[in-house]
Amino acid sequence: MWFTGAVLIVGIAAGCSSPPQQQRQPGALVPGTAEVTINDQKLGSFQSVDCTPAGHTMTITAGNTNSGTTVVVSNGDKQTVTAVTITDLGGFTGSYTQGLAGDAAVSMTGATYSITGTADGFNTDNPSFRSNSTFAIKVAC
Question: pTM, whole model, 2 decimals?
Answer without folding.
Answer: 0.78
